[in-house]
Each structure stands twice: as C-alpha cells, then as structure tokens.
Amino acid sequence: MFFTAAAFIHLALSGRRPPENALRGAAAADWWSAATQFIGTVLFNIRTATRDHVRPGIDARVPDVRSRVTEPIRIDVWSDIACPWCYIGKRNLETGIAQVAEDGDAPEVQVVFHSYELSPDTPEDFDGGEVQYLTAHRGVSEEQAQQMLDRVGAMAADAGLEYRFDILRHTNTLKAHELLHFAREQGRQGDVAERLMAAYFTEGRHLGRIEELATLAGEAGLDPTAAAEALRSGRFAPAVAADKAQAVAYGITAVPFFVIDEKYGVAGAQPADGFAQILRRVRDERSDEVVAPA
After folding, report:
1. Less Cβ crowding at N or C end of the chain, within 10 Å?
2. Confidence of residue 137 (pLDDT cuts 50, 70, 90)
C-alpha cells in the first residue's frame, strides 16, 4: 500500500499519522532505499517541532495576518548538490509551482536553498565512479549499486531529467554550497542551483574544484572572478555551517527537505501535484486568517 502525496498531506494536516504499511521501502538498509521511503511520507508543523530552536530568517514568528495574503510564500529547501533525489525534488517543486501559477489567485513563491552535506568526508577527487562509491561506502554489491542507480535514473526521467551516472564525478560539495550562498548574496541563487545540479548529474562536471565552480558561476550569470575569490576566502563557510546547524534543530536527517511558509516541513522528493496541493493549502489558510478590522 502506498499513499499519494495528497493523502499524506491530508493526514498530517488533520493531525493523524499514516499507517506504517503505507511507507515505501521502510525496511531498506541502504541510504538510497531509505531516501526512497521519504517520497510522500511526512508533512508536519515545523513551528511546533522547533519552537525553541530557530534562528533569524527561519523562525516561528507570526506576522500581521493582513499582510500575509500578499507576501510571497517562502519555501526553504535543504539539499545537497550530490543528492539525486534533491534535483528530482527541485524539478517537481518547480512543476508544482507552475501548476499553481495557473490559478487566478496564484501566490508569489520565493525559494531559498540551504546547505546539507550527505558525505562531508568525501575527498575532492574520488577514485572511481558512482557504482564504486556505493560499493565502497554503502556496503552493497556492484549489482545492487547499479540497480539503485537504475531506479533513481528512472524517477529522474519521470521528472524530465536525464541522469548520466556513467560520467558523474563524485566529489566533496562544501565549496559548491559556499557558491550557493555567494549566489544568494548576488540575487542569483536559483540560477546557480540549477546550473550546479545539471552540471553534476547530466554533464559530468567536477564540482569539487574552485576553478570549475567559478566557470559554472559565470555560466549562470555571476562574475566568475568574484566567485572564485569568494570560494578561496572561505567567507561563506560559516553560512554553510549555520544551515547544517539549523537542519539539526529541525531534526532533518535526509534531504531534500522543504520548509513551507515557515510553518510546514515536507520530507522527500514529493510529486509535483503534492507540492501544488500544499501551496494551495497555505494560500487558503492565509486567506482564512484575515479578519475584518474592529
């Protein structure tokens, strides 16, 4: 039995939990299968879960309800450039936003990317391909590793992505995360996030090297020289660390993870329809909050 994203959202918002047998792959031991079980499994009130563990920018404040109707719905996304589910989740989110944009009363949506490192101990230059990485670090056979890649590749194709695990360059993603923070400062984070994920999963580019990252930054519309200087200085490393600390405070143990409207937490690469439904729910909740002035 597998619940749709809409069913899980309905259960979560009504305060009920889905039955245990509704979780896909819940008994899987490897991280790829564990990631699969997050697809359509949980949505919860992030304010309640983290009331005492918030920081500026991602907080539990309750703004003036009259202004919330016109404010953009903010979606904070914790992800890793090297996470295959994260690119799928990103694309599905974009598709869901596009669906809602067709509504007559469509809200504006703001997406902010945050850092999460799945394998912070990965060297800059890993000797081997993705199959070799999985066999060495996840305790699976080459056959099992290839089956995992085939499954996620098929799901990527469903999202309109063509993964090239045969040319993927496994590497440490710390500097890529620093670049995302630099890009946010420059107002181009979304463009850079897309460029980095496409480069990693579909083009075999090396995202562990500053020179390559600077080139990709330039391709996304940033000054490559300024990007390289920012990465060499390490001045965005504290921002990466702060994102990781916030992830711990939220109880995030797998990515992608989406915090919607500073209120709801959504785990996993939800289908586009699921994202569209929760965005419409938030829009409707905002409208219901508005009260006539006394």
Report:
1. C
2. confident
